[in-house]
Amino acid sequence: xxxxxxxxxxxxxGIVLVVAFLSFVMFQFVGDPIEGMISENATQQERxxxxxxxxxxxxxxxxxxxxxxxMAQGNFGISYYNKSDVLxxxxxxxxxxxxxxxxxxxxxLVVGILLGVWSAYSRNGLMKNTVQILSLVGVSLPSFxxxxxxxxxxxxxLKWLPSHGRGEIVEFGYWSSGLxxxxxxxxxxxxxxxxxxxxxxxxxxxxxxEIQETMRADYIRxxxxxxxxxxxxxxxHVLKNSILPVVTIIGLQVGGLIAFAVVTETIFxxxxxxxxxxxxxxxxxxxxxxxxxxxxxxxxxxxxxFVDLIYLLVDPRxxxx
Amino acid sequence: MDDKxxxxxxxxxxxxxxxxxxxxxxxxxxxxDMCQGEILGVVGESGAGKSLTGSAIxxxxxxxxxxxxxxxxxxxxxxxxxxxxxRQALRGKEISAIFQDPLTSxxxxxxxxxxLTETILTHLPLSQSEALEKAIALLEEVGIAQAAExxxxxxxxxxxxxxxxIVIALALxxxxxxxxxxxxxxxxxxxxxxxxxxxxxxxxxQHGTTVMLVTHDMGVIAEVCDRVAVMYAGEVVExxxxxxxxxxxQHPYTVGLMDSIPRxxxxxxxxxxxxxxxxxxxxxxxxxxxxxRCQFKQFGCDTTTxxxxxxxxxxxxxxxxxxxxEHI
Lengths: 321, 328
Ligand SMILES: Nc1ncnc2c1ncn2[C@@H]1O[C@H](COP(=O)(O)OP(=O)(O)O)[C@@H](O)[C@H]1O
Ligand SMILES: [Mg+2]
Prior knowledge:
The complex is a heterodimer. Chain A is mainly alpha-helical. Chain A has a domain at about 85-275: MetI-like fold. Helices cover about 75% and strands about 0% of the residues of chain A. Chain A is built from twelve helices and two strands. A two-stranded antiparallel ribbon of chain A has the order 1-2. In chain A, helix 7 crosses helix 8 (about 180-215) and helix 10 runs parallel beside helix 11. The longest helix of chain A is centred in the C-terminal third of the chain and has 38 residues, at about 230-265. The radius of gyration of chain A is 24 Å and the shape is globular. The mean pLDDT of chain A is about 85. Chain B is α/β, with parallel strands linked by helices. Helix content of chain B is about 30%, strand content about 25%. Chain B has an eight-stranded mixed beta sheet, sandwiched between helices. In chain B, strands 2-1-4-5 form a four-stranded antiparallel beta sheet, covered by helices on one side. In chain B, a hairpin with a 2-residue loop joins strand 9 (about 225-230) and strand 10 (about 235-240). The radius of gyration of chain B is 21 Å and the shape is globular. In chain B, about 45% of the residues are buried. The model of chain B has no long low-confidence stretch (mean pLDDT about 90). The interface of A and B includes residues 219, 224, 230 and 240 of A.
């Protein structure tokens, strides 16, 4: 177990260093930050001084080392655009994104698993086909179209749910939560649904095909031959085997959801990291962009490690070596 | 037939698969009896319909298969037309099964304990701890050392032979009257095949369990069976006591099968191997299904389908009336 975690940590550091390098390269080649930071009629000398003070004249290796060292100390630099510390900017926005993703994952798990199990076992052909077609739509509908449709229906026509913002939030030190107030819960619903559509259909289709495949396994036939009840066969013997691949997909997808949240947050004006990132892209605010990339990479790695750990716990066949 | 009591009989069973190009008649007019406590061997090439017959008795046929004629009678009661619930109540408790591959017969994510106790509790009114006790005793009976500890393990922690012993324990855990063992040793190492077979035989003889032992290994038949049914292309072509089938086979196909048993120290005049292969179900010949491969075929074999007829020794489905031994 310890060795496994150690290996994972080494991998994680490697991945984060590569991402850090890419974002560092971006610093070097995308635009000139000086242009954005200084008034248009500044003298050449003022520009040079700023360049020197930002360390932009040092060698590439020196700059990269400094970049990584700073990052490791949580120092991602100063935003070019609003001149404040990048890390605190992101940390301020982090809870909104994480809560959005969390709600989206919960919705996709509950709905995806229920639909998957139902469509695998149901004998109602018409309903099954309808769900199947809807799921195709769910997979192929671009996230922004789904988001806009949701807004049109539930905010504009029915006026049930707000179309943007986080509603009332409650602060706890570094964390701010919108999940404790009614308006916050209402506000998170539409963006979370829009974000979860893809994952719901993924889980549903995967689980359905896994269940159908497991139903044909020899050990299910043998369980039937021993007279095990149909209910136990369906919900214990089959489901326990079918859920494992779903765990992996969910794990891989949670990272994807954080990335996808950029689009959702833009549509619903959700004040999370994704919105911050899109604004940063607009202003070529490279410290923010690169910090976002590095932090998302770290989250990806951490989540995947968690999924592997869960897998270890759930599947007795995997031995830690 | 013996004076023993018949526990299960299959009467004129016909089974078809619905197929895009029409129906495939996979079993045609299968009839045989199983007597209390005997081990009935069922032999034949693969594709002969042995497993299908077993599945039909278990009530575990695919949705695409349908019984079109005949009946299966268990202890005087017809069971092939029972509803799903009554059928399920029979499975495991009265009629159980063992399948070919021990590596895939056990659920990989449930411990041996979970699988055994669940099966026991499904059929017997015991408490959890009594069921566990019984499960451990069963494992010891099938030869698993340190059963009390090993019962907590998962299937992948056991070898193939051990897993088949566990499968046997699972199939026999509530003392069924009949066990259908479909090639229980085919997938095992040769070195453990005989041990597992002897274990099965010993347990069934002890408990008076009736066994239908499906195999395509004539050596296995000679070793453990009381009676043998020989199947060919969806039909039973010969059935009788193991001694008669092995020593005085009547059907040309059985003769060919017997000839494939290697025997040490026995010199006998060798018949040539059966040439050709079993026809596909979609291209069955008219008349006797074996006649294209038969070296004793005579006038009429290609037009008349023979029925099982009792001779002084075995019952055989062949038009010829002279025994083959006279031919040789
Ligand atoms: N689901 C199915 N659809 C069509 N044909 C089948 C199906 N299952 C089995 N068969 C056919 O039934 C015949 C008998 O199969 P089986 O009982 O498995 O033979 P074996 O004697 O080797 O156990 C085979 O020819 C096989 O092709
Ligand atoms: Mg078979």
